[in-house]
Amino acid sequence: MADEWSTSVSVDEMYGDWDYLAAVEVLGRSLEPRPSTSLYDTLGSLGLGAGTVVLDIGGREARDALVLAERFGCKVASVDPVQANIDRAFAAVAEHPHGHLVDVRLGSIEQIPADDAAFDVVFSRDMLSHIADVDLALAEGSRVLSAGGAMVIHQVFATELLEPQEAQQMYADGAVVPERMSVAGFEAAVARAGFSVESLDVVGSEWAEASQEAGTAPNYLLQVARLRRAKAELVAELGEGPYRVMYTNALWSIYQLIGKLESRVYVLRRG
Question: What CA–CA distance (Å, rounded) separates 76 from 217?
Fold first, then answer.
């Protein structure tokens, strides 16, 4: 954006004969961004139903798995490497009316606890950024995928607007493997694994916009302001690790809103 204009704005242009309040009103108009639930539409377009089996790899507390089970009636294995997430997933599944369709398992994408060709769809939501060996991850995804099945990957990538110092701090505080933030690097790994890109949805800032407009997400700018101004007190109250995670999570969403990060959804098929 900084290189888009060849000349500077003059003082006359900044304060001249134009209606600032009218411009504010224009910017108050929604661009009708899609919510993050559009990801379920993408998954549903693959024909999910009572006869299909889905792997949600990096499923955390099984939230997505339970939505898929309720919405499509499919069976879902929710696999996560963190025991605390597994404990929360078991609790969520136990009290959900469609919990009987969800199988919670401890495991990772580098070593998926499942037989070959066990799933019709393998689904990964915003977790590959934590994975050191993406080739192994995609190979495992391919191994457990049935013939004709699809792998759906949602991932957030860095854009050219993300400054190196910003990236370094965010990656350190977000347990991010820097190489995973490259679109070109990811797409090269997809090709090496024998997948082709059936479809690509460049979500960009839409999901983050939608959550802000709907009031379903925190005010991340306000969170960052508080985290910066009361750093010592909040570190003492929350602990260093949680403080760093909260700060990075807030920036993660802000950076999507301003184009430093870009959200994408890939549907992959084996070539």
Answer: 26
**In this structure, are residues 68 and 44 in contact, taking their beta carbons and an 8 Å threshold?**
no
Position 69: which residue type?
A: A
3-state percent helix, strand, coil for the chain, nearest multiple of 5: 45, 20, 30
**Strand residues in 171-226 grouped as ranges (E):** 195-204
Domains and CATH numbers, the chain: 32-160+175-205+259-270 (3.40.50.150)
Q: Would you state the pLDDT for residue 271?
A: 74
Read off the tokens for 80.
């996560």
Closest CA to 176 of 252, 118, 119, 231: 252
State how far the Cα of 106 lies from the Cα of 165, in Å rounded to an integer: 35
8 vs 1, 11, 158, 258, CA distance in Å? 13, 10, 28, 21
Residue given tokens 């949805």 in the structure block = 201
Query: Which residue type is seen at 160?
Result: E
Characterize the bridge pairing of strands 145-158 and 75-80. unpaired
Average model confidence (pLDDT) for the chain? 96
pLDDT band at 228 (very low <50, low <70, confident <90, very high): very high
Q: Which tens digit of pLDDT belongs to each residue from 49-78?
A: 999 999 999 999 999 999 999 999 999 999
Structure token digits, residue 111: 């070593």
- Could you read off the pLDDT of 132-190 as tens digits, one per residue? 999 999 999 999 999 999 999 999 999 999 999 999 999 999 999 999 999 999 999 99
